[in-house]
Amino acid sequence: MKTFNYHSAKDVKEASKLASSNSAFLAGGMTTIPSIKLGLATYKDIINIKNIKSLSGIKVSGKTIKIGATTKHVEVANSKDVKKAIPSLAALAEGIGDPQVRNRGTIGGSIANNDPSADYPSACIALNAVIHTNNRKIEAEKFFKGMFETALKNGEIIEAIEFSIPEKSNYQKYPNPASRYAVVGVYVAKHKGEVNVAVTGAKPCVYNDKDLAKALSNNFSSSAIESVKISSSGMNSDIHASAEYRANMVRVFAKKAVEAC
Ligand SMILES: Cc1cc2nc3c(=O)[nH]c(=O)nc-3n(C[C@H](O)[C@H](O)[C@H](O)COP(=O)(O)OP(=O)(O)OC[C@H]3O[C@@H](n4cnc5c(N)ncnc54)[C@H](O)[C@@H]3O)c2cc1C
User: What is the atom index within ligand 1 of the atom nearest the CA of 35?
Assistant: First the structure.
């Protein structure tokens, strides 16, 4: 393991100032630490943001839920407020990894990392999330740019993620049997006037399936999904599932999610 400078920031301003193109923030360390240990990443500076109180917590106000970036998956899964306002979001958090991962991993770390198979990015797209950083507010659709790539700039810190409370929603995934990452996951959310169908695991980056969303906006029932063409073109193909299998799973899980709404 390569050496690095360790810093513990007292506030967001200090953390941002310490950051460079060769640094990482330490939230739960669930990606950063194994990446360093396996030699997949090296950093000059590791900046611990876990002790910054303003970055953690859950607030419901009116039509949204705002979740601080360093809030752990287990806190979202167990939150009475989340369970009441968006039960599918609490269930998603409960389905991440194992108890060890859920007790350390954070929502901010998950979306900053933007793993193609991560669960939270699909929630952000389906629930019209706004990502609050120390500099600006970014709509989820503009935040997730590509595989492990986001709109974040050097030193930019996610402070919170604000989700719109939908009329109804549900998330279904086929979990990798070892890690629980989504081989394919589909998050359906019905808002007033629109439906989002966010898909994770199928392509290099999470996306909103506009054809499924349109079909469900016209007729919110699983039968509406039957006639929608779901192409396997551009879908991931690996030892877990072929592109064709993934395309079929998108249909199956979209239907299951609508039926469970
Ligand atoms: C065994 C295992 C199983 C897992 N299973 C699943 C699963 O089923 N589903 C799933 O979705 N995920 C899964 N994960 C991922 C996990 O849930 C974590 O969310 C993810 O690894 C990120 O970890 P972290 O929150 O500890 O962030 P860290 O590892 O601390 O940081 C990750 C990256 O995000 C950046 N970062 C962190 N916080 C911020 C911030 N506030 N602002 C800007 N940048 C930030 C860091 O600079 C770093 O680049 C799994 C992980 C492991 C190790």
Answer: 29
